[in-house]
TrEMBL record, chain A:
It comes from the Bacteria. The keyword Transferase does not apply. The lineage of its organism: Bacteria, Pseudomonadati, Bacteroidota, Sphingobacteriia, Sphingobacteriales. InterPro entries: MpPF26. Pfam families: MpPF26. Residues 28-39 have a biased composition (Pro residues). Residues 1-39 are annotated as: Disordered. It comes from Pedobacter punctiformis. The chain crosses the membrane at residues 56-84, 112-140. This is CCC motif membrane protein. The keyword Transcription does not apply.
Length: 156, 107
């Protein structure tokens, strides 16, 4: 049982593409090898450095939920993390080869956490404002009055 | 040693940060119960901790996991953090709505 295809000489695949040249589409391209890698780096291939604010953005984004209720710290944390991660994502998109993918993923995760934290804090503040508008400042200052007003409205 | 530990937790439970909203208005905020819940978790009362604040355990998990992830760089770490974080947000929202409907805000 001879297979015709088996007798044909094996052709080497000829798709030797040209070496990929880095696209220089921006006026500013920081050389990846001249800057020392920052502390606390994770992963990262040869010559790839981490995005500068990846860790901070991730940590602040996560802290934005526990701090959501204490004096609005969560909102501040969330906004800082959002802005930082936005800046880093822009940097990565300008020059994807210079930065490690894991730090890019961390930055994106930090951005999403920050967005969730900001939305929660904003909802909380909006609910607070609505409560003040509906019940008035005096009722909020006085729990007894608040209970009476709730009973009037048939809520309690 | 154990007594010292309990003493520290007792001291901590009397020195919690006061929620400004609760102090001024007497109304719970979405984060009220978190500190009490963490303390009861340290004491070993998982169920009580869950009743006080259901999002405590995933929150502690996500904080520890993030530290480990930053140290060791897990492959799906960022993805997992995102998912758990969204879950925590949903739990907090549901918990607060539940509190509103059950009139547990004023106490």
């Amino acid at each position: 049982m001879s297979d015709e295809q088996g007798n044909q000489p094996f052709e080497p695949i000829k798709n030797e593409s040209e070496a990929v040249e880095p696209v220089n589409n921006g006026p500013v391209q920081p050389p990846p090898f001249q800057q020392p890698p920052p502390f606390g780096q994770f992963g990262g291939g040869m010559g790839q450095q981490n995005l500068p604010n990846a860790t901070i953005a991730l940590v602040l984004g996560i802290l934005s939920i526990p701090g959501c209720c204490c004096y609005g710290i969560g909102l501040v944390f969330g906004i800082i993390a959002w802005v930082l991660s936005n800046g880093d994502i822009k940097k990565y998109n300008l020059n994807p080869n210079a930065y490690s993918i894991s730090s890019y993923k961390n930055t994106k995760a930090g951005k999403i956490c920050a967005i969730i934290g900001v939305v929660l804090s904003a909802l909380y503040i909006a609910a607070l404002i609505i409560t003040i508008v509906v019940f008035g400042w005096a009722a909020l200052k006085d729990p007894q009055l608040m209970k009476e007003m709730l009973e009037q409205k048939g809520l309690q | 040693m154990v007594h010292q530990h309990n003493g520290f937790l007792d001291w901590l439970s009397h020195h919690l940060l006061t929620c400004p909203l609760k102090a001024h208005f007497g109304v719970d905020c979405p984060g009220c119960g978190l500190q009490r819940s963490v303390i009861s978790l340290f004491r070993g009362n998982v169920i009580e901790s869950f009743k006080l604040y259901p999002a405590t355990i995933p929150l502690i998990f996500i904080v520890i996991f993030t530290l480990l992830h930053l140290k060791f760089d897990f492959k799906f770490g960022a993805q997992l953090i995102k998912i758990v974080f969204a879950g925590v947000a949903v739990i907090i929202l549901i918990n607060y709505i539940y509190k509103i409907y059950n009139h547990q805000l004023l106490n």
